[in-house]
Amino acid sequence: LLASLEGHDGAVWGVALSGDGRLLASGSTDGTVRLWEVTSGRMLATLLGPTGAVYGVALTWDGRLLASGHADGTARLWDAESERLLATLEGHTGPVQGVAISADGRLLASGSWDGTARLWEAESGRLLVTLRGHAGAVWGVAVSADGGLIASSSYDGTVRLWETSTGERLRTLRADRRYERMDITGLTGITDAQRQSMFALGATERAGV
Fold first, then answer.
1. Is 192 exposed, middle or buried (0-12, 13-18, 19+ CB in 10 A)?
2. Which superfamily does 12-174 belong to?
């Protein structure tokens, strides 16, 4: 264990490291984003957003910019050094669970419980494209190093890859569900963990049997 970072007054939902491993950001249900020095465990800053939980955080490679996703449906961009709020990105109709920033800090991606991912011009807050197609909440997003691709992960069990310039969906990745619709009611000789794994891979069980 290198460090235990304590200071939040609620559950910590999101963490992110700068590319050089020098800084760590954390987001919590206490409504704050906190910035830490990794080597010492020292808290460098507390960023106060709107009332409500902070679900996702992201840092640029150099740690200069920090993004946060909030329960009120906004994503926010901060100057990590000055603690100044640079932009509030509004448009989602549900909490923002995941955020990501391109390596150069130019693009910010957000994923929301509203089932969409969105790409923004970070510092201006301008919406560039809304990515639709998931059948459930979008939990996570990632941006490629060159900003050309976005990946989104969803409660619907898929990961989707998108082209940022057009919003075109390039690929849908879906895990092999080898037990899809298999009824395992009454099955014995397996552990609870194995049973849960089978459910995750599509198995079903009749209630009350």
1. exposed
2. YVTN repeat-like/Quinoprotein amine dehydrogenase (2.130.10.10)
